[in-house]
Give the backbone structure.
Amino acid sequence: MPELPEVEITRRGIEPFVLGKTITAVAVRNPNLRQRVPRNIARLVVGQQVKSLRRRGKYLLFECDTGSLILHLGMSGSLRVIEPQSAPRKHDHIDLVFGGSAVRLRDPRRFGIVLWNRGDASRHPLLARLGVEPLSEDFSAEFLYRMTRGRDVGIKQLLMNAGVVVGVGNIYANESLFRAGIHPRLRSKRLSRERCAKLVEAVKATLVAAIAAGGSSLRDFVHSDGASGYFQQHYFVYDRAALPCRVCGAAIRVARLGQRSSYYCASCQS
Ligand SMILES: [Zn+2]
């Protein structure tokens, strides 16, 4: 599944091809995504110039003259820059054409979203209640400390709550908690100020490292016609059940926590 780093890398990869460009056509080969692509999408967006390409959580916002095209990659979506006349493959459901080039959405599982919002995108129901951006200054030790007070939920669950902070999926929650030395089950309200600071730093460092890992494959990511385009990473704990901890050598444990697998080192995380 594309996580925040993949979405950010996608944004950086396609930005040079869309910024300041005008949408000249839209091809919808299959409108049946998570939400049906509006029938009149072409009439809404053709002629709009892209003023900026922003990311909010895992949403990409093509901000135009009178509104924004909101795009989400869902479970399996990826974007590529192509020549508009190149033949679509199976699962290539939508092209946004910008004159001589196009951005093509491939989405085998069709959980993606493509829609148009007039006016300010941040007020759209999908975006209005999102929490803070993890790489922004809003996500601070003080913010996390405040959010954890009085909350009797495990810290991992709180980190993955998009109403608190966006874009910290299962992989990055596991990895950040390891880096901060915090057990995923620790009750949020028991986190000290110092540990909140450590965790905020760990979340940012984990995401920045993942984006850097993806940045090295940016060219392939945007131009290739490969299968998924998601990049491989080196994890401390995620998906490493029973393997030795990279720091202390103890076996990594796995536990089911709120439907998701939690990976942790019982000696490094308390
Ligand atoms: Zn360890």
About this structure: Residues 245, 247-248, 250, 265, 267-268 surround zinc ion (CB under 6 Å). The chain has a mean pLDDT of 92.
